[in-house]
Predict the 3D structure of the following.
Amino acid sequence: MRSIPAVAAAAIAATLLLAGCTATPDEGSTATPTAGAAPVNECAESGSASDSVTVTGDIGSLPTTAFQGPLSVDRTERTIVSEGDGDEVAFGDLATIDFTIYNGTSGEQVFSTLDEGGTQLQLTVDTTQYIAGIVNAVACTNVGSRVVAVIPPADGFGAAGGNEALGIAAEDSLVMVADIEGIVPLRADGTEQQVPEGFPTVELDDEGAPTVTMPTAAAPTDLQVAVLKKGDGPVVGDGDSVTVQYQGSIYGSGTVFDQSWGNGGPRTFQTTGVVTGFAAAMVGQTVGSQVIAVIPPDQGYGAEGNSAAGIAGTDTLVFVIDILATASAG
């Protein structure tokens, strides 16, 4: 079994994403590896393969799992090991899960968020964003449940030719044990705060998506951060993986160059993997908060800007950030 440091663990978990790259606040944006599988949302059902897997241990702890490989199925099977009494996870929800993955051919454990240095995954329950087998195994289960799934290559990494980082070949099925820890709100739910004068104004639509109106004053030359809503959740620490909704626009023109709203939904970033001003706006804030950050070029994309996003080296950026969840990097 591999020992995976926190940063690598977050990167491996990210390989489950189906989305390609966008003009995110990442310092260096690269395409997310495609995991492959037809994007069909359907609640997985139990079958003989998933029923044959033995899982013991408490939810939230590393499971002890036994099965006789190779396991082969035509579609994802999901058996509920223990049923929780929380809300049911629906398609489109943002679910927090711990999961352990095994190679369905060899039986080897290849990854777990419950290993030392691992972090929980905030999973958007949508097969256009995550591989179908994981999504469909988690959907339609109650918070507090532990499930075991057997996932065929077609619903896993088959179309991508396997996953070298996980030691999964194109023809290998996956066995996954997942603990459904919670459902994350899709927008900040904190208490509204008085915003200092001089900041851009923010109006929210019924879904929580912001519209930003810029002031007429010249852009500030230093980083400015204000809390629009104050949440009462955990504090974001330096190095944490933080799940957010966000919108980025250019100070003055108001041009939106990137946002999660209407573009795949919440994203998870490590504070060490985004531009300086974006990280500074998150660290020290509480989950449930919404903040606005006015970021000068030297704490954004620097003198070179980001031509792919239409950002010049002299542009000051405005980010509205809803902080939905945070997980320590170990």
Remarks:
- The chain has a mean pLDDT of 88.
